[in-house]
Specification:
It is a single chain. By secondary structure, this protein is α/β, with parallel strands linked by helices. It contains 15 helices and 19 strands. A hairpin with a 5-residue loop joins β11 and β12. α5 runs antiparallel to α6. The longest helix has about 50 residues. It is elongated.
Length: about 550
């Protein structure tokens, strides 16, 4: 009897302790749910009023619990159309699993979320409440879109590089022979003005291929230290000649701006293209503000690009008060051949080229725009610690050095390049040999290697790699001087040309002046090295 009473007393004691512990556990779980800042959790009654709203929901939506809980007219996170879609899925399936949907935050910005939803029911099966779970998916979706865009750009780059290479080979012949004809007929000939038009058109075409090469592999450029302020001032000079006087241009440039490592020509073209787009967006006039400054990006800085790295950046901001862009236009603005202009007014390559240039410089672009409220382009370029040198003024004439009867062998598979190259070299005072490809070139070099002072070698020829040909030539004559040439630019060939600045290179199409300077530089440079070695021995 006594034993049974003790057991019953012990059982009651445990039960009472259990009744005391359970509420504490439930309270702890409820508090953990409310404080969770990763997953948004909201509880709604059957008429859509919020009963609970956790910390994660506050961070994702921008609303506080006080803003929503218990309100007879709570703010709507979803559009009318999405709300109907949610209601339909609940009615049919009784819940929602991982639905991609967009919400509108308190600050007006939209965020992509993954929504799951279930309904709490009573004993009779009637719905008592709904529980929403949502996770911010904006970053992941943004990265996926950027990755897809990057893959598309890579395909465009491969195509553009091939087109540019072949086109540059054709332009070499056009430019070369046009120059010869202009020299032959003199300044006063009636045909000279036509030849000048042909030459200018060919130069413009060459500039177009440079833009196309922006999309190929590493972007293709010989890097120098660039002062962005100098480029922006040059852009303004160009704009002042073409912009409607009703458009006010303002410059706000930070003094002592850090240098950027890259191509001044490409960056100036990128800045100019954005400014021209801004001009076109303000047909009735407005304000164009161009500014520069420094930004240090660290872990506290909002993520603006999946390529964004921590460090110091030069930020160039170009803003207008024009028409602005709707979300659809903004999403497509960097796509190749996309344009909002009328047929014949634009190719759709402008902003696509801008994207390629900035990306190839290790930078990124953030665009803010709203229909009817203008557009802001913020361009971020990695800052260099060294001070930028003064820009060389455009249009300065270079001295054209003449040859000293040295023998030069040109190896190229294009007949036009062979002909124009031979004629240029002879006109400059060199003896010229030409070969129609790698096999022919190796044969001629083997026979006359002791007479040949320099080889101009095309890098890409059918069935041959210019670097392999260069190595075979070096075996036949160690220390031989080689000037590589291609319709592709230097960076296309990767480490073989980018990292080894001792490898001499000239890009097609080149003028006779360019060829004269490069050939003389290679020959004289080698002579100076030989002289220094001899003096060191003595």
């Amino acid at each position: 009897m006594g034993t049974n009473m003790r057991e019953e007393s012990l059982h009651i004691s445990r039960r009472e302790r259990g009744n005391q512990v359970r509420p504490q556990i439930f309270e702890s779980i409820a508090e953990a749910v409310l404080q969770n800042d990763v997953v948004g959790i909201a509880v709604l009654d059957t008429v859509g009023a919020y009963k609970a709203f956790n910390r994660g929901a506050e961070l994702i939506t921008g609303y506080t619990r006080e803003d929503v809980v218990g309100k007879t007219s709570p703010p709507e996170l979803f559009s009318d159309e999405d709300r109907k879609l949610i209601r339909g899925r609940l009615d049919i399936h009784g819940g929602i699993d991982n639905m991609d949907i967009r919400i509108k935050r308190k600050d007006g910005f939209e965020r992509d979320v993954i929504l799951s939803m279930s309904s709490g029911r009573g004993k009779d099966g009637a719905v008592l409440e709904h529980v929403q779970f949502f996770v911010d998916n904006s970053e992941k979706k943004y990265l996926q879109e950027l990755l897809l865009h990057s893959q598309k750009m890579e395909i465009v780059g491969e195509m553009a590089g091939g087109i540019a290479h072949d086109f540059n080979n054709l332009l070499e012949g056009i430019l070369g022979y046009t120059t010869f004809m202009m020299d032959l007929i003199g300044e006063d000939h009636e045909l000279r003005s036509y030849l000048e038009i042909i030459k200018r058109s060919a130069i413009k075409a060459s500039d177009l291929t440079e833009r196309l090469l922006t999309f190929s592999r590493d972007g293709g450029r010989d890097d120098t230290l660039v002062n962005s302020n100098t480029l922006l001032r040059e852009v303004v000079k160009l704009l002042e000649r073409s912009v409607d006087k009703r458009i006010v241009i303002e410059l706000d440039l930070e003094r002592n701006l850090k240098a950027v490592l890259g191509s001044g020509g490409q960056l100036e073209q990128a800045f100019l293209n954005i400014c021209l787009n801004a001009r076109d967006a303000m047909p009735e006039g407005g304000k164009l503000l161009i500014s520069s400054g420094h930004v240090t990006i660290d872990s506290s800085y909002p993520r603006l690009s999946w390529k964004m790295k921590h460090g110091r950046y030069v930020r160039v901001s170009i803003s207008d008060t024009g028409a602005g862009m709707d979300p659809e236009t903004k999403a497509r603005m960097f796509k190749p051949f996309f344009t909002t202009k009328k047929r014949g007014e634009g190719t759709g390559l402008g902003l696509n080229m801008v994207y390629g240039i900035i990306d190839n410089h290790g930078g990124f672009i953030k665009v803010y725009s709203e229909k009817g409220k203008g557009t802001v382009f913020n361009i971020y370029l990695p800052a260099h610690e060294e001070e930028a040198p003064h820009e060389v003024l455009a249009g300065e004439k270079r001295e054209v050095p003449e040859g000293k009867n040295e023998m030069v062998l040109m190896i190229d598979d294009e007949p036009v390049i062979q002909d124009v190259g031979r004629d240029m070299l002879q006109k400059l005072g060199y003896r010229a040999l030409v070969a129609s490809g790698a096999e022919d070139g190796l044969k001629i070099f083997g026979e006359r290697k002791d007479e040949i002072d320099l080889v101009i070698l095309d890098v890409i020829m059918p069935g041959a790699n210019g670097f392999d040909v260069m190595r075979e030539i070096a075996e036949l004559k160690p220390g031989v001087l080689v000037l590589l040439s291609s319709g592709y630019n230097r960076s296309f060939f990767g480490e073989d040309l980018i990292d080894d600045k001792q490898v001499n290179f000239i890009q097609k199409p080149y003028s006779m002046e360019d060829l004269a300077i490069e050939v003389r530089s290679v020959i004289d440079g080698a002579a100076d090295v030989t002289k220094e070695k001899k003096e060191g021995v003595e």
